[in-house]
């Protein structure tokens, strides 16, 4: 992976999070990364750190082997058609980050038989904590490892079937926003019961981090850890029951399903 040249086509918020994560890991040569965007002013900070920036997608593709296409669903296919003449099936690996656009659609737009992957990271790539779901019809082990290695450098990866990619978008990518909204609400509650905003934020963010680590390291169901905290007639169970009476879990589940249905449309 260290010798691969990478083009990130369409460095918007997600693309920039990936680039920042790559910069901070210091495990990938920045001179091997090219990022594209129409407005290059947004990428000037990356250029100062050694990233090549350009508004020319075709030249970025020509100079790279691994092509990360971080474009929106509404324009990815047209851009792929524009640069298809520069895509070499013997040289390039295409990785699409676009929600709702299938491998078959990407293949048709490019008009060539070559290795195509779909991946769904999230903006926690910025701090090397993304979870990236990956799918492909490519059976080549070396190329699979190349793609996994790239995304492992900004977090962790999970291989899934393509029919689950939209669900992965909701849980893994939209999920960042859901969790952040929950954190914001906890901070607001902390302020109401007496903390200043800064102190409440420190307590809440570390509490959320600790809760996640408990589940990751202990590999227990959340309810197992909840039971440790909910003593009979205690304040924790009183608070949880009040939240449930007001539809806490139901609202979250309905939000997830609504996001999924939006993608399906």
Automatic annotation (TrEMBL):
Catalysed reactions, semicolon-separated: L-proline + NADP(+) = (S)-1-pyrroline-5-carboxylate + NADPH + 2 H(+); L-proline + NAD(+) = (S)-1-pyrroline-5-carboxylate + NADH + 2 H(+)
Subcellular location: Cytoplasm
Matches recorded under SUPFAM superfamilies: 6-phosphogluconate dehydrogenase C-terminal domain-like, NAD(P)-binding Rossmann-fold domains
Residues bound to NADPH: 57
Residue sites binding NADP(+) per the record: 9-14, 70-73
Domain Pyrroline-5-carboxylate reductase dimerisation: 162-264
Keywords: Amino-acid biosynthesis, Cytoplasm, NADP, Oxidoreductase, Proline biosynthesis
Single GO MF annotation: pyrroline-5-carboxylate reductase activity
Gene Ontology BP, a term: L-proline biosynthetic process
GO cellular component: cytoplasm
Residues annotated as domain Pyrroline-5-carboxylate reductase catalytic N-terminal: 5-98
Regions crossing the membrane: none
UniProt xrefs under InterPro entries: 6-PGluconate_DH-like_C_sf, NAD(P)-bd_dom_sf, P5C_Rdtase_cat_N, P5CR_dimer, Pyrroline-COOH_reductase
Pathway in which the depicted protein is active: Amino-acid biosynthesis; L-proline biosynthesis; L-proline from L-glutamate 5-semialdehyde: step 1/1
Keyword NADP among record annotations: yes
EC number annotated for this UniProt entry: 1.5.1.2
Function comment: Catalyzes the reduction of 1-pyrroline-5-carboxylate (PCA) to L-proline.
Record-stated family: Belongs to the pyrroline-5-carboxylate reductase family.
Protein name: Pyrroline-5-carboxylate reductase
Gene name of the record: proC
């Amino acid at each position: 992976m260290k010798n691969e040249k990478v083009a990130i086509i369409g460095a918007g918020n997600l693309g920039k999070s990936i680039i920042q994560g790559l910069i901070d890991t210091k495990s990938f040569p920045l001179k091997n990364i090219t990022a594209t965007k129409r407005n290059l002013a947004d990428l000037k900070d990356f250029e100062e750190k050694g990233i090549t920036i350009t508004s020319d997608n075709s030249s970025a593709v020509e100079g790279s082997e691994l092509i990360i296409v971080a474009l929106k669903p509404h324009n990815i296919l047209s851009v792929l058609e524009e640069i298809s003449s520069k895509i070499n099936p013997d040289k390039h690996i295409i990785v699409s980050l676009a929600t709702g656009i299938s491998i078959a659609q990407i293949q048709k737009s490019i008009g060539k038989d070559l290795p195509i992957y779909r991946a769904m990271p999230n903006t926690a790539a910025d701090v090397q904590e993304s979870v990236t779901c990956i799918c492909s019809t490519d059976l080549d082990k070396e190329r699979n490892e190349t793609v996994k290695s790239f995304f492992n450098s900004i977090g962790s990866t999970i291989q899934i079937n393509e029919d689950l990619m939209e669900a992965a978008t909701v849980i893994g990518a939209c999920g960042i926003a859901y969790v952040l909204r929950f954190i914001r609400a906890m901070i607001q509650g902390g302020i109401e019961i007496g903390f200043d905003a800064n102190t409440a934020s420190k307590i809440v963010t570390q509490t959320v981090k600790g809760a996640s680590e408990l589940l990751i390291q202990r590999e227990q169901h959340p309810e197992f850890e909840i039971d440790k905290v909910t003593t009979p007639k205690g304040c924790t169970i009183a608070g949880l029951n009040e939240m449930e009476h007001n539809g806490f879990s139901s609202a979250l589940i309905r939000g997830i399903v609504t996001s999924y249905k939006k993608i399906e449309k």
